[in-house]
Amino acid sequence: MSAALTPFATSAASGPDHLRVDGLSRSFPDRRVLTDVSFTVSSGERACLIGENGSGKSTLLRIVAGLDEPDAGTVSAPGRVGLFHQQPPFALDHTVAEALDDATAPLRELTRRVETEGEAMATGDPAATDRFQAALAEAERRQAWDLDHLLDRLVDGLGLAAIPRDRPATQLSGGEVSRLSLAWMLLRRPDTLLLDEPTNHLDERAATLVGELLTGWSGPVLMASHDRAFIDEVATTLLDLDPAPLRHASVRHDEDSPGSGFGVTRFSGSCTAYLARREAEHERWERQYRDEQEELGRLRGRVRDDHTVGHANREFHAVGVAKKFYSDRNAKVVARRVNDASTALERLEAGQVRKPPATLQFGGLAGRPSSRGRTPGAVLAATSVAVPGRLAATSVALAPDARLLVTGPNGAGKSTLLAVLAGALAPASGSVTRVGRLSVAMLGQDVVQRDPDRTVRETYRDAVGDRAEQRTPLRTFGLVAGRDEGRPVGTLSVGQARRLDLAILLAHPPDVLLLDEPTNHFSLLLTDELVASIPDYPGAVVVASHDRWLRRGWTGQEIGLGRD
């Protein structure tokens, strides 16, 4: 296995059971991401990083895994640290069997050591007893004896059983590679487990299995996820990286990065409860900032005005000692009032909260689809469309204002059906009928590959055209922060890049909008806003999703593919 792909690092822990992050900061040339982040995750605790896209969740996980270096701060963790992320932990020329063999090799070697040292003890080797006891303790701690049972559970539960074991990873879909990578990491059983969006390609059965395994994990678990149902069921602690209302003086040096967080906010309740509390706290933050700015203005005016008392140019009619008495009294009153106001002003200036950063607010899916006419019947119909090995014969008819949710387990053909409806894939049998000049567009699961050196603003203009960019600027959608429009596309997080894909799609709203796993990689706030805006779209919307939270609140039509 290539060293560049190795997802393990060994850390000298400060304690036997804790993952400890202390004062971590990380900046890139064009932005600050993490500032003075400190927290502890204990053995058996499952902490979930949450925050807006680009807030530094993946960066933090990479630093903890030893794949990136912080500008400041330290990380310590017990034993071997393993990271599941977008980079497969095995070489892509490996077959499925070779990847699974590679995953199980360390624990199989551990059980062989126990056997070897046991045999050495039987032959009278005096040092074998200590080696045997150490190997046995390690095997029991890492549950090496349950390896074959765990392997069977993961292969079946993650939907890998139907994939031929001799198939190279290069011939797998992105979702299959992701699930094989997750199985690899869980089979390795690292002491400290790091997970970046572990449920993105999991159906409900697979997500339930992973949740059960994490609940019984002996070491600390730190993950980043936007899957609200999974977070509520699995996470014991939330760590929010979004900005908090700190004192202005403590963050003045970073005014150029208004969206970066400082430290973390820790919460032990459910994700749903925390999001409600965070919204209320942000409103209080905005109100406090507004009130403090008004008071600062009042105090500054008072300092300016209180240099005089009464009539500044008043002539004293008294002479001699009396005139000096009135003049001294006026000076003392002025000095006292100026001192009081100045003290209050200095205290408030030192303690005022930082300005709340502008938060992205999605403008919604409402738009004007390109077609002008409307027919009373179906505008897009798929009749008995099938793709061997990917989609059984399926029929769908969409009215102009249809709202259809496509569900089903991994491998049932949800993405394949959307690709057929989009015209990106021709079915082996069956037919697809469109009415008139119908426009159909799809937001896929994978980010569109674009020139990494072009800026976000340039990429948007390249994709939609000059006229559309002038008519509907990128900022219209509330998907990309203004400060990020000048960044190269190659520096965006996956979530930010997918936001850009959605904005490009909405610049020319289609008559039929296809959304394949629309909650993948999007922040919790954007997911809420996106799902809430689906009823307002003026065309038809088809959603394929595993997301249990989305499915529970769905009120439109639903079609299930395969077993569910």
Describe this structure in words.
By secondary structure, this protein is an alpha/beta fold. The protein has three domains: 1-245 and 255-259, P-loop containing nucleotide triphosphate hydrolases (Rossmann fold, 3-Layer(aba) Sandwich); 280-351; 380-560, P-loop containing nucleotide triphosphate hydrolases (Rossmann fold), CATH 3.40.50.300. Helices cover 38% and strands 18% of the residues. A seven-stranded mixed β-sheet has the order 1-6-7-8-4-9-10, with helices on both faces. The protein has a five-stranded parallel β-sheet with strand order 15-16-17-13-18, sandwiched between helices. Strand 11 and strand 12 form a beta hairpin. Residues 1-20 are annotated as: Disordered.
How many helices? The count is: 16
Q: What composes the largest sheet?
A: 7 strands, mixed
Q: Give the N-terminus to C-terminus distance in angstroms.
A: 36 Å
Find the count of extended strands (DSSP E, 2+ residues). 18
Keywords: ATP-binding, Coiled coil, Nucleotide-binding, Repeat
Region (Disordered): 1-20
Protein name: Macrolide transport system ATP-binding/permease protein
Pfam families: ABC_tran
Entry summary:
Residues 275-302 form a coiled coil. The protein contains 16 helices and 18 strands.
Quickly list its features.
five-stranded parallel sheet, alpha/beta, single chain, Rossmann fold, flat, seven-stranded mixed sheet, 564 residues
Secondary structure blueprint with pairings:
Blueprint: E1 8-10, E2 19-28, E3 31-41, E4 46-50, H1 57-64, E5 72-76, E6 80-84, H2 96-122, H3 128-141, H4 147-157, H5 174-188, E7 192-196, H6 204-215, E8 221-224, H7 228-234, E9 237-240, H8 248-251, E10 265-267, H9 271-305, H10 321-351, E11 380-387, E12 391-398, E13 403-407, H11 414-422, E14 429-434, E15 440-443, H12 456-464, H13 466-471, H14 494-507, E16 512-516, H15 524-533, E17 540-544, H16 548-552, E18 557-560
Parallel strand pairs: 4-8, 4-9, 6-7, 7-8, 13-17, 13-18, 15-16, 16-17
Antiparallel strand pairs: 1-6, 2-3, 2-5, 9-10, 11-12, 11-14
